[in-house]
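Give me the fold.
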Amino acid sequence: MSPADAGADWIVLKFGGTSVSRRERWDAIGALMQQRAAEEQARVLVVVSALSGVTNALQALIDKRSDAPALADGIDALATRHLAFASDLGLPASVLDARLAALRALGTDARARGDGLDWCAEVLAQGELLSSTLGVAYLRTQGIDITWADARDTLHATSLP
């Protein structure tokens, strides 16, 4: 968030997995964003979940991380699902290149063979990263001025009184 944004009124809209898993639902999200921004003269921050069922599929990857072929197959299935959704949204497959490369890299990451939570957290984050990347790209094609922000770069812990 820039210093200019700090004083702006914000509206936060959160959408779960079924709300971001179909094209017409992204159309509704875009319309709602524009409506709320206009009606309330505020900036709109949209938070989205992974596509329906994707978090469970990512957890399954974590659970079978010691089985390299099964891990690779699970990643391929997730890539196929997201590429199909990109196609449904009328987007080129290339919109997901960086995200899918990151997911595939996690599949071969040496941390996958250990007990560390950092790898698990990165794997689980891929669902929201994939869905938000698709959503922003789609809404841009619909003429909506939207910026993608990585929550991992903007979340800050503060001391509570």
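The two ends are 24 Å apart (CA to CA).
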